[in-house]
């Protein structure tokens, strides 16, 4: 076999493998979104992200927060800081992040961060703003957390029965619309992430 033929076969194999990986990825995402499945190559300026105009956001499910408070939790800690659309987003969101989520439609991005000691105990998301913006059935919603920095000890993410205490900048974690999840910042460092919300598009089903 000539070298050229051999190289062509290698390239074709690589392309084919990539296609298979992508299909497998989407299938896994549909069935098991809590796993760490996709990465987004970090190309962001973390200082730009830290300088966004964040707002303090207590968790909106008042009934659930009251139950936690009655159990002894400090309700001021059950909160997060966020920055979301329609605020102007940094350029890398439209140029780099959203295209990575081409298996989703109606993609919305928001930044959030937890100060040390802040946490959101086990809960389901409400999607209030997203549902206002888009006429979608909540059961089709997928949410992703894209980590913007490497984790440090004490930063913990929980999705259903899985707990994650270590990740790299660019790692993504998923859950389906009402799956229980939680985040705790028991570290001494702020934790920054992008929250991506969307629905699986028809071509990926
Ligand atoms: Fe949540």
Number of domains: 2
State the helicity in percent bands.
25-40%
Q: Number of helix segments?
A: 5
CATH superfamily of the largest domain: Jelly Rolls
Major beta sheet, strand line-up? 1-9-6-11-4-3-2
**Ligand catalogue:** fe (ii) ion
How far is the first residue's CA from the last residue's CA?
40 Å
Estimated share of beta-strand residues: 25-35%
Poorly predicted spans: 8-12, 15-20
Shape: globular
* Derived structural class: alpha+beta
The CATH C-level name of the largest domain is: Mainly Beta
Which topology of the largest domain does CATH recognise? Jelly Rolls
DSSP strand tally: 11
The biggest sheet, with number of strands, parallel, antiparallel or mixed sense and barrel status, is: 7 strands, antiparallel
Instruction: Report the order of strands and helices.
Output: HEHEHEHEEHEEEEEE
Q: Please tell me how large the radius of gyration is.
A: 19 Å
Description:
With 205 residues, the chain is α+β, with helices and mostly antiparallel strands. The protein has 2 domains: 1-31; 34-204, Jelly Rolls, CATH 2.60.120. The protein has 5 helices and 11 strands; from the N terminus they run αβαβαβαββαββββββ. The strands form 2 sheets. Strands 1-9-6-11-4-3-2 form a 7-stranded antiparallel sheet, covered by helices on one side. β7 (155-159) and β8 form a beta hairpin. The protein starts with a helix and ends in a 5-residue tail after the last strand. The model is unreliable at 8-12 and 15-20 (pLDDT under 50). Bound molecules: fe (ii) ion.
């Amino acid at each position: 076999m000539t070298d050229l033929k051999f190289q062509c076969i290698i390239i074709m194999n690589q392309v084919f493998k990539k296609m298979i990986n992508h299909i497998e990825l989407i299938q896994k995402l549909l069935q098991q979104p809590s796993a760490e499945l996709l990465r987004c190559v970090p190309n962001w300026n973390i200082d730009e992200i830290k300088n966004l105009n964040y707002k303090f956001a207590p968790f909106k499910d008042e009934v659930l927060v009251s139950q936690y408070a009655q159990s002894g939790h400090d309700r001021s800690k059950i909160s997060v800081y966020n920055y979301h659309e329609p605020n102007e987003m940094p350029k890398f969101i439209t140029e780099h992040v959203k295209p990575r989520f081409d298996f989703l439609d109606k993609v919305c991005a928001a930044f959030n961060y937890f100060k040390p000691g802040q946490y959101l105990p086990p809960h389901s998301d409400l999607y209030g703003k997203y549902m206002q913006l888009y006429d979608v059935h909540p059961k089709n919603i997928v949410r992703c957390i894209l980590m913007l920095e490497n984790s440090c000890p004490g930063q913990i993410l929980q999705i259903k029965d899985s707990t994650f205490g270590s990740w790299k900048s660019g790692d993504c974690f998923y859950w389906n619309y009402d799956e229980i999840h939680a985040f705790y910042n028991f570290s001494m460092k702020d934790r920054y992430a992008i929250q991506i919300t969307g629905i699986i598009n028809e071509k990926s089903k």
